[in-house]
Design brief:
alpha+beta; globular; Jelly Rolls; about 375 residues; 4-stranded antiparallel sheet; 8-stranded mixed sheet
């Protein structure tokens, strides 16, 4: 697979040599962790204890070879379609062909823009101020666009292939193993790191709601799956401080000050091949640098929670307006799991579909069809953001 866009490579200017050393040494540290391999289950269907132990020890794990070539081709076709349908510039209602632009009629937050190689969240009050330090913003190459889309929320309404990944039986079995059989959705997204253009995501922890909860523990804010269309490298991938999910709310400003730059010395990159899917605890300190490399990263992001973390809880207001998440809202949002399972069953009939316990117990059945697809518009207004 390859993208149709021309790859652009730039560098970090005076910091380029130090950055290259950091990327190389970080990659070496990552490979020594031992937290990668195929998804494995025990004879009784439980997730293999080696995976569970490594995930809770480091806060992330790279599942290798989850998405096969046929599925990657589907995802790539949807990705190209999404690129063609983006607004010609921020705020435009039309795409480059004069058609109604993707997301232009959405009420929910959908498209997130940045200047090339920028850091739109770092050092601001956005997202409850959870990105306290701004990342370095390299100078893009001449001719770079004025602004770029680097993040798309509510991505399942724009990509049926992503919806089918959401219904992947092994990934849902992992979600049940980590968050319980009554696990719930969080949110879904598509991260786009174009070569020589892709924005950074400043160091942060995702959770905002439960830090001071008497029931706080290392998994209370859930996790994200990160499926990789083209793979990811130290230069364009997410970096994580291993074990930081266990330590509570981090003082990221102090961590960066102690390091003397945004290159945190204990962090490691997630390194993936096409089709790998990483699981990342949302409480880890993590972030990514501007993509000065000549390689794409396109990540299908799928988040999940424990039911106990969201039921009766007031949301953090990052992805949508703050609200108390009652059983009806959780049930309505969880229907995407049912539709995803059936959409995948139709595309890959030889697989054994996942059985989602809450629907099995209630006797509910979901069927994916064009009418349901049209009904996904703005579904992420019901995201369960904590």
């Amino acid at each position: 697979m390859s993208t149709s866009a021309t790859a652009i490579k730039v560098d970090y200017g005076p910091d380029e040599a130090a950055m290259q050393v950091y990327l190389r040494e970080g990659g070496q540290r990552a490979h020594r962790l031992g937290n990668r391999g195929p998804i494995r289950f025990n004879a009784d269907g439980t997730l293999h204890e080696d995976i569970v132990e490594a995930y809770w020890r480091h806060g992330f794990y790279v599942f290798e070879g989850v998405l096969k070539e046929e599925e990657l081709q589907d995802l790539e076709a949807d990705f190209f379609d999404i690129l063609e349908r983006l607004p010609v510039q921020e705020g435009s209602p039309v795409d480059a062909k004069g058609r109604p632009a993707l997301g232009a009629d959405c009420e929910a937050p959908t498209l997130f823009w940045s200047k090339p190689l920028g850091d739109p969240f770092g050092g601001t009050d956005l997202a409850n101020g959870r990105h306290p330090v701004k990342m370095r913003e390299p100078t893009p190459a001449p001719g770079a666009p004025k602004d770029i889309v680097y993040l798309i929320l509510g991505s399942l309404q724009f990509s049926e292939a992503s919806l089918r990944v959401y219904g992947h039986p092994q990934l849902l079995a992992v979600a049940a193993a980590i968050n319980g059989e009554d696990f719930t959705p969080f949110t879904e997204a598509l991260f786009i790191k174009a070569p020589g253009l892709g924005a950074s995501v400043a160091w942060h922890q995702d959770g905002v709601t439960h830090w001071d909860s008497p029931s706080w523990d290392q998994g209370i804010h859930g996790f994200n799956f990160m499926g990789q269309l083209y793979g990811c490298t130290p230069a364009n991938g997410v970096w994580i401080v291993p074990g930081s999910h266990k330590l509570g709310r981090a003082n990221i400003k102090e961590m960066v000050a102690r390091a003397g730059s945004e290159r945190l010395p204990d962090a490691v990159p997630m390194i993936c091949n096409p089709g790998d899917v990483a699981i990342t605890n949302r409480q880890t300190v993590h972030g990514s640098f501007a993509n000065t490399s000549d390689q794409w990263r396109v990540t299908v992001n799928l988040g999940f929670h424990r039911r106990s973390s969201v039921l009766g809880v007031k949301g953090g207001g990052v992805h949508n307006a703050p609200a108390v998440y009652d059983a009806n809202r959780i049930h309505t949002r969880s229907r995407l799991i049912g539709y995803a399972i059936d959409a995948r069953r139709q595309r890959f009939p030889d697989e054994t579909p996942f059985v989602y316990k809450p629907f099995a117990e209630s006797g509910e059945s979901y069927r994916w069809n064009p009418e349901m697809k049209a009904g996904l518009k703005d579904y992420n207004l019901l995201d369960l953001s904590i």
